[in-house]
Structure prediction request, 601 residues.
Amino acid sequence: MTEIWQGLIRAVQLLVSFDAEVVEIAARTLRIAGTSSLLAAIISLPLGTLIHFRQFRGKGALINIVQTLYFLPTVIVGLFVFVLLSRAGPLGELGILFTPQAMVVGQMVLITPIMLGMTISALSGVRKELLETATSLGASGSQLGLLVLREARYAVLAALLLGFGRALSELGVAMMVGGNIDGYTRMMTGAIWLATQRGDLELALALGIILLFLALVISIVLNRLQQRRPQ
Amino acid sequence: MSRPPSMIRITALTHRYGDREVLKGLDLSISRGETFALIGPTGAGKTTLLRIIDLLEMPSSGEICFDDRPVPGSGKQRLQMRRRMSLIHQKPQLFDSSVYDNVACGLRWRGNKETETVRKVGSILETVGLDRYEGRDARTLSGGEAQRVALARALVLEPEVLLLDEPTANLDPVSTSRIERLIRSIARQRSTTMIMATHDMSQGQYLADRIGVLIDGRLVQTGNSTEVFRSPRSEEVAGFVGMENIIEGKVVASAEGIATVKTGSDPDGTTIQAVSDQPVGREVHACVRPEDITLAPATHRSSARNSFRGTVTGVASSGPLSRVEVDCGFALVALVTRLSTEELGLEEGAAVVADFKATAVHVIERSAHR
Prediction:
């Protein structure tokens, strides 16, 4: 027990002293997860808006599939992207396996369904009468799309945050297509795994605290957003 | 008579939701600058008609011309036509933003310069009496304030056609009269073409040049308010415009513009005198507004052409008035002030005389509308 306590105390010391390794890993994690979230959002917002407004055959089935992909195991995504990017794979030419780019691609595959599906359900929460009023006031198709995103902004932001949270906390993709390379593709989750294996509890706990703290921040913001739903 | 050019012309318009036909072959032409009230009971199809006119919905069949040009099914031209109109809903649908942003959105969508938008929004908010509300969160407004923002949001666009769907249905009397005054002054100042749906006949009478009665998806009568309210064309319209007393009968005599209508099937049934040209032998409805009937004590000698002895069968107060039901061979409903009710001792079983003038009776041929 004392070992754990000592580890915890050392971990806090690492944190408050802005230990170079801890800061570096945390910054890289935020950079990679942030990039993949941004790109996934750039895909999900317009695509979600389009799917929301268009009526087409198989729309319900498509939404069902997207929602099923929320629960995609990270190792399956890791395997899929690994095969895709490996030298013999269809995108092997790119030669980006075991690079941060590969991790961004993998995380995008992982979180785009969440952002897309939740954006669609966020938009469907906007009253039909409101959109009709906008149409009547002269909004064009694209203006209507921007309005619906704005009306559902809190729920949409929650969708994006949830995707970001998943990218931040996943391990499978980062390990399988990033390779957990020190100083290059090592993220917080991978670093915690490795440090724990090595018995470096201080580092593992310090990173764990940061990860939990980020989760707490995201959860608080999510809660706030949910309370701001329009009456 | 030369009429101003038509702003909106509807020909043989029919609309279906699934199997249900909500609009059944409407023909209607509305002139530029006219204020037209569409009255009718809830569910008659008023909202659907307004939505189709506002180009929010495509009719199942029929044609609409806007400013003498047929409306295309989609595309830029349809958007441009829609941008010359504004629809105000029964329940104001405000966006989740400030009052200013709500009112400014239509101008922004039209690509107006922001400096001009600021000026126009400021001025319209002053018109509707909300000039200090610019920064307020639109969702915190009361019902009356919200409806005024919705009105400002539509008016700031200076639409050529303003469509109003029961604009005061959810408001208290003070807000209602405020909105009505606004609508009236806009109609006068800007010569905007207005089409408003209402189930409130008096509102239609107060605000409109012309009234159309929509019942069960059919436009059963159009005309100026006097025509519609005094001379409804059918039993349905009569009932809707407040002629609560609709008595079945048959014309048995006619002289000098006065028809004698015998009520009921009994050979010595009571007769009613009415100003009407209906010929002898015609099956008719004699319609009388409850406010045109006066009640007097049973001893009263009357000079009215129609005077019937009867017994009170029920009294119910509604606001400052009482609705008194009288059986005088046929059932009559009269509206009397509360004071008279007390003075005359009107209560169930009391004997009274019910009087009304021959001019107060409107005679309609039975089933004439079929």
Notes: Chain A has one domain: 2-228. Chain A touches chain B at residues 127, 129-130, 132-140, 143, 147, 150-151, 230-231 (CB under 8 Å). Residues 2-228 of chain A form a domain with the MetI-like fold fold (CATH 1.10.3720.10).
